[in-house]
From TrEMBL:
GO cellular component, as recorded: mitochondrial inner membrane; respiratory chain complex IV
GO biological-process terms attached to the record: mitochondrial electron transport, cytochrome c to oxygen
Reported function: Component of the cytochrome c oxidase, the last enzyme in the mitochondrial electron transport chain which drives oxidative phosphorylation. The respiratory chain contains 3 multisubunit complexes succinate dehydrogenase (complex II, CII), ubiquinol-cytochrome c oxidoreductase (cytochrome b-c1 complex, complex III, CIII) and cytochrome c oxidase (complex IV, CIV), that cooperate to transfer electrons derived from NADH and succinate to molecular oxygen, creating an electrochemical gradient over the inner membrane that drives transmembrane transport and the ATP synthase.
Phylogenetic placement of the source organism: Eukaryota, Metazoa, Spiralia, Lophotrochozoa, Annelida
Subunit structure: Component of the cytochrome c oxidase (complex IV, CIV), a multisubunit enzyme composed of a catalytic core of 3 subunits and several supernumerary subunits. The complex exists as a monomer or a dimer and forms supercomplexes (SCs) in the inner mitochondrial membrane with ubiquinol-cytochrome c oxidoreductase (cytochrome b-c1 complex, complex III, CIII).
Membrane topology: Peripheral membrane protein
Keywords in alphabetical order: Heme, Iron, Membrane, Metal-binding, Mitochondrion, Mitochondrion inner membrane, Transit peptide
Molecular function GO labels: metal ion binding
Main location group: mitochondrion
UniProt protein name: Cytochrome c oxidase subunit 5A, mitochondrial
Amino acid sequence: MLRAVTSRFYAATSAALRANIQRTCAVQAVRYSSHVKESDEEFDARYEAAFNDPNTDGWLIRKLMNDLHGYDLVPEPKIIIAAMKACRRVNDYAMAVRYLEAIKLKCDKNLDKIWPWMLQEIGPTLKELGIDTPEELGYDKPELAKVNVFDIH
């Protein structure tokens, strides 16, 4: 008796689920295919405008930084300058320094080329806002680093 009830229940629910899944997949394909490609200038302008908006609070600044960090790119200096000004506007010095650290990590393999150029471009704004770089704060050297045993002798 129980086997007959469960098999009928399974047959009824699986048919309904299959129909729902097919309908959902078709709708998602339509939604995703209508995406418009954004140019680099539009991308930069969108993030710069979002950071420069006076109504942007600390949470939204963090979200914008996180979204921007998720892309496979190093942001333009004008976006970083807008982000630094936004951090100072909401009085979050720590977020500004951490974002500079994140930008430095994004430079990855081209650190010796990109990071000095980036500091040259954003340096005057950092001085104007009173924000120190991670190197000036000593964050480039670990505080509690142990000496490598292979380098002792």
